[in-house]
Design brief:
Mean pLDDT: 92
Low-confidence stretches: none
Helix content: 25-40%
Largest sheet: 7 strands, mixed
CATH class of the largest domain: Alpha Beta
Number of strands: 14
Distance between the termini: 57 Å
Radius of gyration: 18 Å
CATH architecture of the largest domain: 2-Layer Sandwich
Bound molecules: D-MYO-inositol-1-phosphate, calcium ion
Number of domains: 2
Order of helices and strands: HEEHEHEHEEEEEEHEHEHEEH
């Protein structure tokens, strides 16, 4: 059959996961090669909120790959979405009903990247009419590739992941994060109350890796207040597909507009939500 020269080549929708894996691994390797070698360090909302030319270059690399393979798809990337909570929420609103939208955090854990602390990753999700159907997270330092497709399970390097089995908070290892835009009071409120009730609390400085680690059963739960769609979309699917539970702090099911996340192995979800509510986090 003659090929129509005017039609762009478009891979089948089933291959979006392949494009996401390719983009995350290629970009991740490039980011790794730039550790200790970034040239521009700019401040976004505060000195705790950083961006480098590597973040921007990584987003460009991913955008170009998406445009090549899936030219009709929408693209929501952190470095082109506008700065601040309101701009982020508006950017999500603009694409949430799109047929297909790629939701991309080119480097999740930029502060770690800048300091050479080896926990950062590329996070790529694809949503179909608002529902996340592909989630890929690549950690180039540890060469860990986390992949989930809606209804097909979640995998780390091809091995099926299952969230942990711990049934109570007191046998659980949990994580939280401290986003620059959230007040110190909100960030620490629940932390001081929960510390004596769990085995330990961790913060590796990457929302996406925390979610991947819940999916992998390495931690039992993770909560954080004041995040954006690109921090969460891929990881939320990994958790759901590994048998875990993902909601907002009010216990509503996760969707791409959620900013206050609670993700867990499922067994401790209600206990954790109750604990967060007791500490005044409920919306
Ligand atoms: C940040 C990381 C961090 C979280 C911040 C995020 P960035 O993302 O996920 O763990 O606490 O809220 O903004 O800025 O490195 O992409
Ligand atoms: Ca991020
Ligand atoms: Ca980022």
């Amino acid at each position: 059959m003659e090929k129509d020269q005017k039609q762009p080549y478009v891979v089948s929708s089933k291959s979006r996961v392949a494009v996401a894996i390719n983009a995350a691994s290629k970009t991740g390797e490039w980011i790794k090669s730039k550790v200790g070698d970034h040239r521009q360090l700019n401040i976004k909302t505060s000195s705790q909120d950083l961006v480098t030319e590597v973040d921007k270059g990584a987003e460009q690399m991913i955008r170009k790959l998406v445009q090549t393979y899936c030219p009709g798809d929408e693209f929501l990337g952190e470095e082109s979405a506008g700065i601040g909570a309101e701009a982020s929420a508006n950017a999500v609103d603009a694409v949430k009903d799109a047929e297909y939208v790629w939701i991309v955090d080119p480097i999740d854990g930029t502060t770690n990247f800048v300091h050479g602390f080896p926990y950062f990753c590329v996070s790529i999700a694809v949503a179909h009419k608002g529902e996340v159907i592909v989630g890929v997270i690549y950690d180039p330092t540890h060469d860990e590739l986390f992949v989930a497709e809606k209804g097909k399970g979640a995998y780390v390097h091809g091995n099926l992941m299952k969230s942990a089995d711990h049934a109570t908070l007191n046998e659980s290892l949990v994580a939280t994060g401290f986003p620059p835009s959230t007040s110190v009071e909100l960030k620490t409120k629940a932390l001081t109350d929960i510390l004596p009730k769990v085995r330990g609390v961790r913060n590796v400085g990457s929302a996406a890796l925390h979610l991947a680690y819940v999916a992998a059963g390495r931690i039992d739960a993770y909560w954080e207040i004041g995040l954006n769609a690109w921090d969460l979309a891929a990881g939320a699917l990994l958790v759901a597909e590994s048998g875990g539970t993902v909601t907002d702090v009010a216990n509503n099911p996760y969707d791409i507009t959620v900013r206050n996340i609670v993700a867990s192995n499922g067994h401790i979800h209600n206990e954790l939500i109750q604990q967060l509510h007791n500490s005044g986090l409920n919306a």
